[in-house]
Amino acid sequence: MKPTDFRIWGLAPAWVIMALTLVVPIGIVILVSFASRGAYGGFDWGFSPASYAQILFEEDWDGNLAFTPQYLSIIGRTLWLAGLTTAICAALALPAAYTIAQAGGRAKAVLIYLVTLPFWVSMIVRVYAWIIILGNDGVLEKTLRSLGLVTDIDSLLFTNGAMLTGLVYSYIPLMILPVFASIEKLDPALIEASHDLYGSRFTTARRVILPLAMPGLMAGAILVFVPCLGAVLEPILLGGGKAMLMGNLIQTQFGGGRNWPFGAAIAVVLMVLVMIFLMVNALRARPEVPHD
Amino acid sequence: MDRKKAVEVVNVAKSFGTFQALKGVSFDIYDNEFFTMLGPSGCGKTTLLRMIAGFESPTSGTIRLHGKDILSLPPHKRRVNTVFQSYALFPHMTLEQNISFGLENLGWEKERRRARTAQMLEMVHMSQFARRRPAQLSGGQRQRIALARALAPEPEVLLLDEPLSALDLKLRQAMRDELRALQRATGITFVFVTHDQEEALDMSDRICVLGHGEIQHLGTPNEIYEDPENRFVADFIGETNFFEVDVLAVNGPQATIRTPMGQTLTTFHKGAQVGSKATLSLRPEKIGMEDQADGPAQSGELMEGRITGRNYMGGYTHYTVDVAGVELRVSRRNAVSHSASFDPGRTVRLGFRHDSARVLAR
Fold first, then answer.
1. What are the angstrom distances between the C-alpha of A42 and each of A38, A290, B2, B142, B265?
2. Which of A192, B139, B231, B307 is least enclosed by beta carbons within 10 angstroms?
């Protein structure tokens, strides 16, 4: 068997699985997004851009289209929240990853283990725990009150802040690990060289450590930003369903809303956003400097 | 030479746990000097260098830079620069940016920075590579950029941590000359760390031989090779034959001893005491064999021996010779092409000038 044969036939099972579980469903979603809503909650096949128009325009009783910002604001909020989550994760992960990388053999292994520890517990349970912490009469509120810091506070739960907290909490390990990997590769002599050449700690962090941690930050950004765009759990449990994100909107349309074409259209928009993000990221990433 | 002190190392000791890496060493390095710290690995030479740079601090003792105590200063506030063993060039910066980095941190104006960077690139013959990145360079080129980067901010002292150890033999030879020329041209004090004695002898004004956490000998290359302070130094620098000898008399700098080959001779000593045993050090190239002009003819009675081994090294041939049951190493220069060579088993006559041997305390 020629090597090329093997390349084709060896990959065949993977190709089949990918085709069946990814390409076909995505194709169906795209087709459904161009279908029209059926009278009894289903959909009728066809080719109509109506569902996409619905994202921007509202049809009144007379059949006139009027611009509506309600879905755009959901998309905007989703992008903003995912971006903010990514930024906060990056800001927190850099010093954490640097500290872990500096730690000695055994301590390093333990710290890495601790970072991955949350994955051992179901996501729902972990997010639910935040309800107990942030909720009315919750752990945080009680603590603040008993310290006399506050007398009466508005609910911490069901706010954008709560949602953001939950998202950062859920995804930060996915930022710490790749950033750690790139910082660990960094030759400690480079940091000494920076100090030796009159670089303060801040200068060293900004001009040596940060640029060299960039590949890790980029990988982390993908791992955090992309799932944040589709987050469903945190908005429901911590945002209280008041402030919807795209994930919730899609879920609602397929569920209670019974508007599959519209849900599919939002899903396609989400997919396009993710692809744009990945492409920009791939183009921005310079080929890594070869080591000898 | 200007004798102003650039670096003063005062009673510096360093312990790692129970291991004493440095047992309280003191010495001065003068301005405009090529000073080498030489020793086997683990002798504390790199630790000393890193203390001057500020990456490590002594357990006790003081280090002064031009009279000022620098121990309380972090590395980035010390006016010294380091050429690292691995060069440690910033991989994400061009060569220009690498060289300019220290100048920016010192707050130099843009124009001055540019001029200095260009000058440094010129100095190391790398001007045409200004916009390249370190990964695109060969080992020797990286070495040059590391030097340019460290010299650019005009440090009071330049520290070099085994900078030639990663280069191949030919390049190392060329870089030695370049380093020495650079030191002369810039007039900056170089503090060089190496375990390679040849490098040290070739480049240094003075060498500090370190061993077992202590200074074994501090002197010029010639002093260290020809008049070693003790057995450690004689053994570490170059090749030598050691004999256990009886000290018969000591008269000032001279001692009279009897060798195991049966000769009685008088020569210079370090720390020999009458009636006790001492070590005689005799370098292989100081021993003449048969027809060599500067050998047997000049002084000392001739010894008879039998060749037991031969190693042809090109420029030299090393022999081992059995003289009355004592094994002697003899080095013979191949002065003409196809020099006559002595086959193992052959009987030869050997001799050496008595004042070429040294008596050392055991």
1. 5, 55, 96, 69, 115
2. B139
| ipTM entry | 0.86
CATH for A146 = 1.10.3720.10
Cβ–Cβ contact A292 with B under 8 A: yes
- Count of domains for chain B: 2
Chains A, B: CB pairs < 8 Å: 67
Domain that holds residue A99: 80-251
Q: Is B153 on the interface with A (CB under 8 A)?
A: yes
Which is higher by pLDDT, A149 or A20? A20
CB-based contact B76 A198, cutoff 8 Å: yes
Angstroms from A188 CA to nearest CA on chain B: 9
Q: B101 touching A, CB under 8 A?
A: yes
SS3 of residue B254 by DSSP: strand
* Cβ contact B105–A199 (<8 Å): yes
pTM above 0.95, yes or no: no
A194 touches chain B (CB under 8 A): yes
Interface test mutation site (partner B, options A195, A198, A206, max chain B beta carbons within 10 A): A198
Backbone angles phi, psi at A124, to 5 degrees: -60, -45
| The pLDDT value given to residue B75 | 95
Q: Which residues of chain B have pLDDT under 50?
A: 1, 292-298
Q: B255 and B242 in contact (C-beta within 8 Å)?
A: no
User: pLDDT tens across B206-255, in order?
Assistant: 999 999 999 999 999 999 999 999 999 999 999 999 999 999 999 889 99
- CB of B324 less than 8 A from some CB of A: no
CB-CB under 8 Å, A189 with B53: no
CB B272 within 8 A of CB B287: no
Residues contacting residue B85 through CB under 8 Å, at least 6 positions apart: A189, B161, B162, B163, B165, B166
Cα B205 from Cα B30, distance rounded (Å): 10
Per-residue pLDDT, averaged over A178-194, amounts to 93
What CATH number is associated with residue B226? Answer: 3.40.50.300
Q: Of B197, B213, B231, which one is at a domain's C-terminal end?
A: B231
- Whether B57 and B196 map to the same domain: the answer is yes
B60 touches chain A (CB under 8 A): no
Question: Which residue of chain B is at minimal alpha-carbon distance from A208?
Answer: B90
CB B316 within 8 A of CB B339: no
Residue A30 in domain: yes
* Model confidence at A41: pLDDT above 70: no
Average pLDDT, chain A: 86
